[in-house]
Predict the 3D structure of the following.
Amino acid sequence: MVSKLQAAHIAELAGICLVIGNGQHQRPVERVIAQGIGTLFLPSRKAGARKAWLGGRLRLKGSLVVDAGAAAALGRGSSLLAKGLVAVEGVFERGDPVAIVDADGSVLAHGLSEYDAAECAAIIGLHSTEQAAVLGYSPRSSVVHRDQMVLK
């Protein structure tokens, strides 16, 4: 049942309806809707295929722990900036999928990191104007861009 609920979540992110029911009857979807035998999952939003993929069952390579201010900004649709990082967990490369978690360990989002784990650790809490001196190159616009992230 867990895998069915995970599939329903992925479908919901993509804006797709999903039915869990007995498929051995004539017109099973109609039967679920008309008789209430089974479960119909209706999407509450449409995030597109890429966001559905990001929010799905990717094998996450690590976690980025954020402060309360960053968590609130993410909820408003902002990208994750280094200023809001408080810790980095795991080993990952640039472009790898990571979880973004709050101080309690609750998953806020999944996204693709613009930096590897060592670079993320080096720029924890730094403003973008301070990052070039640490990294040795001009910083990217964010640690995880909002276009490469899906909120949980």
Remarks:
- The beta strands are 18-20, 39-41, 62-66, 85-90, 97-101, 107-112, 149-151.
